[in-house]
Amino acid sequence: MKIAALWHHTLLAVLLGGVFLAAGADEARWNSPARLVDSFVELALKSDNSTRQNPVHKWTAPVRYFIVQGVGDEELHRKLIGTHFRHLAEITGMSIEPAASEAAANFLVVLTSEDRLEQELPRYFGSGSARQRTALFRGSLCLASFAVERKKGSIVRGVAIIPVDRARGNGDLVSCVVEELTHAMGLPNDSPKVFSSIFSRKSTQAFLTGLDHLLLRMLYDPRVKPGMDENTVRPILRTIAAEYQRDKRFDSAEQIAAESGLAGLDR
């Protein structure tokens, strides 16, 4: 084993904190066109912060990200975040590259500490009340949000904030990076209905699953347009899902997920 590969394997084992990444019988239930479409609606058109149905939101312009480093281990964090952004670019076909400065970025990844959240939240998530800011993180280890064009529905800006000490203390730094950066690509919801997915509260996954891969690929299919409502997008999703079944993408999705991105570094 090469030294670099050994380093990556050891690093991820430490950061995952012993998370058990086993596939159970329930995880195969998503493996059909109908369930894939339902999972898309659940994750892309709903939100933790609202009861109303949302339209499709996705990036249409190149993503340029900047890491706001408020803690140590800068090279480690840069590697984790850069690897996952490259993975997202491969899946979606989007151009995702580092920006030269915070001012030039349309996606910020804020790495901070728990005792600085009171300072960071108003700056990056708006100036709500102290109660609102507390509620923002209640039940959430890390957080992501995005802004959209009102008329078109395209995502124009994203931000993820990760209190690194809290995340590492829970053995969840890697899963925080994966989940929050992926949320801000246009899958804003978390739901126990989409097991197996990194967005399921019932799952112990730390990396993108086969379901997550197909959902991202479906979201960034050119036929799926930002601003589409459920009635408009469902027939298109059914067509795409049927194509995935015909092309046997369901059969290969989990293996591809296990060999890609940060999950691939752990092999």
Task: Describe the protein.
With 267 residues, the protein is α/β, with parallel strands linked by helices. It has two domains: 24-51 and 191-267, no CATH class; 58-185, 3-Layer(aba) Sandwich (Collagenase (Catalytic Domain)). It is 45% helix and 13% strand. It contains eleven helices and six strands. Strands 1, 2, 3, 4, 5 and 6 form a six-stranded mixed β-sheet that branches. Helix 3 links the parallel strand 2 and strand 3. Helix 2 (33-44) packs across helix 8 (210-219), helix 2 packs across helix 9 (230-246) and helix 3 packs across helix 7.
Protein topology:
Elements: H1 3-16, H2 33-44, E1 58-59, E2 63-69, H3 74-92, E3 96-98, E4 107-112, H4 117-125, H5 130-137, E5 143-148, E6 154-163, H6 164-169, H7 173-183, H8 210-219, H9 230-246, H10 249-258, H11 261-265
Parallel strand pairs: 1-6, 2-3, 2-4, 4-6
Antiparallel strand pairs: 5-6
Helix pairs in contact: 2-8, 2-9, 3-7, 8-10
- What sort of overall outline do the alpha carbons produce when their principal axes are compared? globular
Fraction of residues in helices? Answer: 40-55%
| Main sheet makeup | 6 strands, mixed
Order of helices and strands: HHEEHEEHHEEHHHHHH
Query: What is the fold named in CATH at topology level of the largest domain?
Result: Collagenase (Catalytic Domain)
Amount of beta strand: 5-15%
- What is the C-alpha radius of gyration, as a whole number of Å? 18 Å
Number of domains: 2
Per DSSP E runs of 2 or more residues, the count of β-strands stands at 6
Alpha plus pi helix count: 11
The CATH architecture of the largest domain: 3-Layer(aba) Sandwich
**Which segments are poorly predicted (pLDDT under 50) over 5 or more consecutive residues?**
1-14, 16-27
Q: Structural class from helices and strands?
A: alpha/beta
User: Distance between termini?
Assistant: 11 Å
Can you give the mean pLDDT?
84
Question: For this entry, what is the oligomeric state of its chains?
Answer: single chain
CATH C-level label of the largest domain: Alpha Beta
Question: CATH superfamily membership of the largest domain, which one?
Answer: Collagenase (Catalytic Domain)
